[in-house]
Amino acid sequence: MSFIILKNxxxxxxxxxxxxxxxxxxxxxxxxxxxxxxxxxxxTLLNIIGGLDTPTSGEVFVEGIKINALSEDDLACFxxxxxxxxxxxxxxxxxxxxxxxxxxxxxxxxxxxxxxxxGALTRVGLEHRLKHRPSQLSGGEQxxxxxxxxxxxxxxxxxxxxxxxxxxxxNTKMILELLKKLHSEEHFTIILVxxxxxxxxxxxxxxxxxxxxxxxxxxxxx
Length: 222
Fold this sequence. Notes:
Layout: E1 4-13, E2 16-26, E3 31-35, H1 42-49, E4 57-62, E5 65-66, H2 72-82, E6 83-87, H3 98-109, H4 114-123, H5 139-150, E7 157-161, H6 169-186, E8 189-194, H7 197-200, E9 205-210, E10 213-219
Parallel strand pairs: 3-8, 3-9, 6-7, 7-8
Antiparallel strand pairs: 1-2, 1-4, 4-5, 9-10
C-alpha cells in the first residue's frame, strides 16, 4: 500500500473551491514537490495531508490511517508523532537563542531536552551557532533552525511550505542541499510546496497544480 493516498479531495470555502477532486498516491521515502501559481491549491493540499486542515469531502490515508476521520485529539497525536512542518516564515522567538527555539518546539511535542536540541541543530550544521539569537543569524541559518525544529520528533513525513520563499539563490541552494542530505540519510518522505522552478527540480517527482486540480505529475530527471 502507498504511504499516502488521497481519494477525490474537495475543499470548499463557501462558494470558492480550493481543491477540486484531487486524487494521488505517494510512496514512502519519496521527495515530491507541488508547484503552481498562487491560489492553485498547493498549500491547502499540503495542510490537508499534514492534518492541519480537513477536506470538505474525500479521503486522506497516511500509513493506512484515514486521518480525516480522526478526532481532534487523535489528529493532534498524528501531527505530533508523524509529521514535521517547515514554513516560509520562520516564526522563531526573537529573544530565544537557537537551542531554546528548538527546545520550545520540543515542549509542544513532549518534553524539552537540551541535549536532543543540540543534536538536532548539529544535524543541520549549526553546532557553531547554538547560542545565537535569530537577529544574529542569516536567513538561511534561521531556516536551518526551522528544519532542526521540525526534526525533533523524528518524523516520517516532512512537509515544507515555500521553505526558501524568503531566501536568495545562494541560501536557497544551501537549504535544498541540506534537505537532500537529510533525505538520503534518514529516508523520510518530503512534500515541498514551491512556486520557484529552480526549487521544483530538486527531489524525485513534481506535481503541477492549477485551479485546485493536478494538471501534471512527472518524475524529475536526475
